Predict the structure.
Amino acid sequence: MGLIAIDLDGTLINNQHDISQENIKAIKTAQDDGYEVVIATGRAHFDAKKILEGAGLSLYTIGANGSTAHSPSGTTILSIEMLKDKVVDIVKWLDHAHFYYELFCDDGIYTPKDARHILYQEIEDLQHVALKPEIDFMEFHLDKQLSQSGFVFMENNQDVFQGKQKIYNILAYSFDKHKRQRGWEMFKERKDLTLVTSSPFNLELEHPDASKGNAVGYLAKVLNKDLSPSMAVGDSGNDISMFGVVSDSYVMANADDEVKSKAKYVTASNDEDGVAQAIYDFLNRVKQ
Ligand code: CA
């Protein structure tokens, strides 16, 4: 039996920040059928683990967009760190461009001590030009961003650069469209980095070998699981790499059109138990 890879935010997690009982039930059905159900998220491993524990789930977890993979008990299976001097250069550019950013390490999510004010200020500046629903949407995403577990507030980012921490992922975040575009333009051609996005407001940089798709392939090999049949379900740009690795790719109804065009099937939204529907559809399809 194969593997089922599920993204967290905008996919398994609904807009109330919960994993529904219907989705949990579907995961258990797939496990009973012999499938290895794996989480594949942009979140740091410890942050994802806490969310899964809250829902009573214990699963293999691909974290930081494929830079890490851990067993249900927390053993490291995959760890692809970024080169430190590359991180230093990128962070220098982000600081100069006045970006809010986070560095994902094994022991925490490191962010400059006063960086949050950049995000509050960006929303403040947009109050005059954006509509109320747009501001509400930004505030919803800001809450989600700041509710991750394991923040470490840096007095000085040199402490991390000179420390022993492995850095897996640099997440840059902005509500300013032009700032995000400048970031995207700056890094999109770099062959020595993976650049993806998992939210309307971020860009994420990793080692060029790191992607959710590569990590799914690697886990399948390590766990001796077949990739035909296998399924993946997600909602954002950072999920597209998985769609090419599995036999059956599902995209959430809440995804944007570009991501939708990359998957084989569209399932319901994250607020309508889209993951459960995708799992049942896949299990039925395989049995036919
Ligand atoms: Ca997502």
Notes: The pocket of calcium ion is lined by residues 7, 9-11, 198, 234-236 (CB under 6 Å). The radius of gyration is 18 Å. The first strand starts at residue 2 and ends at 6. Residues 132-146 form the longest helix (15 residues).
